[in-house]
Design brief:
Enzyme class: hydrolase
Strand order of the largest sheet: 2-1-3-4
Protein name: protein-tyrosine-phosphatase
Organism: Alcanivorax jadensis T9
EC number: 3.1.3.48
Radius of gyration: 14 Å
Largest sheet: 4 strands, parallel
Number of helices: 6
CATH class: Alpha Beta
Strand content: 5-15%
Helix content: 40-55%
CATH topology: Rossmann fold
Order of helices and strands: EHEHHHEHEH
Number of domains: 1
Keywords: Hydrolase, Protein phosphatase
Length: about 160
């Protein structure tokens, strides 16, 4: 059995590619790369084809995630994603509402917020660091690392 996960934010250049890279590292370290498929996308179309934001890549590289970030390119969520992924996780409530509006009626997918998997998280949304300072990208990584650990634990139960 395999499980497929899609991480979603607004433009797919900050939060969701960070979640994809961090979670991929966790999956590889756990030896589950053959059982868990991972991707990311955005609800908006502004950055299609672009690499993750340079500040995202720099923050990720400082923590050793640069390898996983190098090949990522932004894409927009497609209705077909709801048929192809088992778990679709939004970075914030606005993204979740957009996904709920897009979800075809005949699809049963686990749809929720990413940080619902982070035990002990003091917030329920991963804040968008795009218009903020450098520290926002480190804060995003802190939150995503916690969420990735919890998500991996939850998916192990499904495998």
């Amino acid at each position: 059995m395999t499980v497929s996960v899609l991480f979603v934010c607004l433009g797919n250049i900050c939060r969701s590619p960070t979640a994809e890279a961090v979670f991929r590292e966790r999956v590889i370290a756990a030896g589950l790369e053959e059982k868990i498929c991972i991707d990311s996308a955005g609800t908006g179309d502004w950055h299609i084809g672009r690499a993750p934001d340079p500040r995202t890549r720099e923050a990720a590289a400082r923590r050793g995630y640069h390898y996983q970030m190098d090949s990522l390119r932004a894409r927009q969520v497609d209705p077909q994603d709801f048929y192809e992924f088992d778990v679709v996780l939004a970075m914030d409530n606005a993204n979740l509402a957009d996904l709920q509006a897009m979800q075809p009626a005949d699809v049963t997918v686990t749809l929720g917020r990413f940080l619902d998997y982070a035990s002990g998280a003091s917030v329920s949304e991963v804040p968008d660091p795009y218009y903020g300072g450098e520290d926002g990208f480190d804060r995003v990584l802190d939150l995503i690392e916690g969420g990735a650990d919890g998500l991996l634990d939850a998916l192990r139960e499904r495998l």
